[in-house]
């Protein structure tokens, strides 16, 4: 049911933990399944994501997607991090079962929420970043029905 990459990131999650005094922190949940993901970003003056950590209270797919999402944004610019969609995370994991697609949405939204927090703290505008949702289950409903 799960790819080897998903199992690997679930069993050995990369970048798990938190960053004290992070440049941006984003928390997103899904009211339906009750899972929560928090992403911490450390962004330098040049706008490069120097470090990223996550904490996920959720299912195995949520842990695996958080882990892969942090790997994909680490060392990237803010604009590059914005391009890390849930599709990109799923592709990097060699796919997810359809019922687990929403778990990857948590990862995308949590990164956006952390970038939003960073932008607010620094009073800057990030081109292409929309106000993130705190509950992705609304989006999921629109997609499902
Ligand atoms: Fe909800 Fe995975 S079951 S995030």
Q: How does this model look, in words?
A:
- The protein has 145 residues and is of the alpha+beta class.
- It is 43% helix and 16% strand.
- The protein has six helices and three strands; from the N terminus they run αβββααααα.
- Strands 1-2-3 form a three-stranded antiparallel β-sheet.
- Helix 1 crosses helix 2, helix 2 crosses helix 5 and helix 4 (86-92) packs across helix 5.
- Residues 30, 33, 35, 58-59, 61-62, 100, 102-103, 106 line the site of FE2/S2 (inorganic) cluster.
Short structural description:
By secondary structure, the chain is of the alpha+beta class.
What would the principal axes of the Cα set say about the shape?
globular
Gap between N and C termini: 24 Å
- Portion of residues in beta strands equals 15-25%
Task: Output the structural class.
Answer: alpha+beta
**Total beta strands:** 3
As a percent range, the share of helical residues equals 40-55%
Query: What's the helix count?
Result: 6
How many whole angstroms does the radius of gyration measure?
Answer: 14 Å
Sheet with the most strands: spatial strand order? 1-2-3
Low-pLDDT runs of 5+ residues are: none
Overall residue-averaged pLDDT value: 94
Ions and ligands:
FE2/S2 (inorganic) cluster
Q: What can be said about the biggest beta sheet?
A: 3 strands, antiparallel
Q: What is this structure's SSE topology?
A:
Blueprint: H1 4-11, E1 24-29, E2 36-43, E3 49-57, H2 60-73, H3 78-82, H4 86-92, H5 101-121, H6 137-144
Antiparallel strand pairs: 1-2, 2-3
Helix pairs in contact: 1-2, 2-4, 2-5, 4-5
The structure holds FE2/S2 (inorganic) cluster.
